[in-house]
Specification:
mainly alpha, de novo design (two linked rop proteins), elongated
Length: 120
Protein backbone atom coordinates (compact mmCIF):
# COMPACT_ATOMS: atom_id res chain seq x y z
CA UNK A 1 0.00 0.00 0.00
CA UNK A 2 1.41 3.37 -1.03
CA UNK A 3 1.13 6.77 0.49
CA UNK A 4 -2.31 8.18 -0.20
CA UNK A 5 -2.30 11.25 2.07
CA UNK A 6 0.43 13.49 3.40
CA UNK A 7 -0.56 12.34 6.89
CA UNK A 8 0.85 8.91 5.95
CA UNK A 9 4.36 10.28 5.35
CA UNK A 10 6.75 9.36 8.17
CA UNK A 11 8.76 12.59 7.93
CA UNK A 12 5.51 14.60 8.22
CA UNK A 13 4.49 12.61 11.32
CA UNK A 14 7.88 13.24 12.92
CA UNK A 15 7.76 16.93 11.95
CA UNK A 16 4.33 17.19 13.58
CA UNK A 17 5.77 15.77 16.79
CA UNK A 18 8.70 18.20 16.59
CA UNK A 19 6.26 21.11 16.34
CA UNK A 20 4.41 19.88 19.43
CA UNK A 21 7.68 19.54 21.34
CA UNK A 22 8.98 22.96 20.25
CA UNK A 23 5.76 24.64 21.36
CA UNK A 24 5.86 22.80 24.68
CA UNK A 25 9.54 23.46 25.44
CA UNK A 26 9.34 27.17 24.63
CA UNK A 27 5.80 27.91 25.88
CA UNK A 28 6.99 30.08 28.79
CA UNK A 29 9.88 31.77 26.98
CA UNK A 30 9.59 35.55 27.12
CA UNK A 31 11.92 36.15 24.19
CA UNK A 32 8.95 36.34 21.84
CA UNK A 33 11.01 37.04 18.73
CA UNK A 34 13.10 33.90 19.23
CA UNK A 35 10.09 31.80 20.19
CA UNK A 36 8.18 32.94 17.10
CA UNK A 37 11.16 32.19 14.83
CA UNK A 38 11.74 28.63 16.03
CA UNK A 39 8.02 27.86 16.04
CA UNK A 40 7.55 29.18 12.50
CA UNK A 41 10.57 27.24 11.25
CA UNK A 42 9.26 24.03 12.80
CA UNK A 43 5.77 24.52 11.36
CA UNK A 44 7.35 25.21 7.97
CA UNK A 45 8.86 21.72 7.91
CA UNK A 46 5.56 19.88 8.14
CA UNK A 47 3.74 22.44 5.98
CA UNK A 48 6.20 22.08 3.10
CA UNK A 49 6.03 18.29 3.23
CA UNK A 50 2.23 18.48 3.06
CA UNK A 51 2.15 21.10 0.31
CA UNK A 52 4.74 19.29 -1.80
CA UNK A 53 2.80 16.04 -1.57
CA UNK A 54 -0.14 17.54 -3.45
CA UNK A 55 1.92 19.21 -6.18
CA UNK A 56 1.47 16.33 -8.60
CA UNK A 57 5.02 15.60 -9.74
CA UNK A 58 8.02 14.19 -7.98
CA UNK A 59 10.14 17.10 -9.21
CA UNK A 60 7.87 19.63 -7.47
CA UNK A 61 7.55 17.44 -4.38
CA UNK A 62 11.33 17.23 -4.13
CA UNK A 63 11.57 21.02 -4.30
CA UNK A 64 9.24 21.31 -1.31
CA UNK A 65 11.14 18.60 0.57
CA UNK A 66 14.34 20.58 0.04
CA UNK A 67 12.62 23.68 1.48
CA UNK A 68 11.42 21.57 4.43
CA UNK A 69 14.98 20.38 4.95
CA UNK A 70 16.15 24.01 4.95
CA UNK A 71 13.61 24.88 7.64
CA UNK A 72 14.83 21.87 9.59
CA UNK A 73 18.37 23.23 9.44
CA UNK A 74 17.06 26.55 10.71
CA UNK A 75 15.47 24.79 13.71
CA UNK A 76 18.74 22.97 14.40
CA UNK A 77 20.68 26.24 14.29
CA UNK A 78 18.17 27.95 16.57
CA UNK A 79 18.47 25.07 19.04
CA UNK A 80 22.15 25.93 19.45
CA UNK A 81 21.15 29.52 20.18
CA UNK A 82 18.59 28.33 22.71
CA UNK A 83 21.24 26.19 24.42
CA UNK A 84 23.82 28.98 24.40
CA UNK A 85 21.35 31.44 25.92
CA UNK A 86 20.21 28.91 28.53
CA UNK A 87 16.67 28.82 27.14
CA UNK A 88 16.93 25.02 27.20
CA UNK A 89 19.15 22.54 29.00
CA UNK A 90 21.42 19.91 27.46
CA UNK A 91 18.77 17.19 27.75
CA UNK A 92 16.09 19.19 25.92
CA UNK A 93 18.65 20.23 23.29
CA UNK A 94 19.72 16.64 22.72
CA UNK A 95 16.17 15.30 22.44
CA UNK A 96 15.06 18.00 20.00
CA UNK A 97 18.28 17.79 18.01
CA UNK A 98 18.01 14.00 17.67
CA UNK A 99 14.43 14.33 16.38
CA UNK A 100 15.73 16.85 13.82
CA UNK A 101 18.39 14.38 12.68
CA UNK A 102 15.75 11.66 12.36
CA UNK A 103 13.54 13.93 10.25
CA UNK A 104 16.50 14.94 8.06
CA UNK A 105 17.30 11.28 7.43
CA UNK A 106 13.67 10.55 6.55
CA UNK A 107 13.48 13.52 4.17
CA UNK A 108 16.78 12.62 2.52
CA UNK A 109 15.65 9.02 2.04
CA UNK A 110 12.33 10.18 0.61
CA UNK A 111 14.11 12.51 -1.83
CA UNK A 112 16.31 9.62 -3.01
CA UNK A 113 13.21 7.44 -3.46
CA UNK A 114 11.34 10.11 -5.42
CA UNK A 115 14.32 10.75 -7.68
CA UNK A 116 14.41 7.07 -8.59
CA UNK A 117 10.68 6.67 -9.32
CA UNK A 118 8.90 7.56 -12.55
CA UNK A 119 6.30 10.17 -11.59
CA UNK A 120 8.51 13.06 -12.69
Amino acid sequence: MGIERFEDIESWKEARELVREIYEVFKNLRDYGFKDQIQRAAVSIMSNIAEGFDRGTNKEFIQFLVVARGSLSEVRSLLYTALDLNYIDERAFSELFQRCIKIANLINGFIRYLKSSHKN
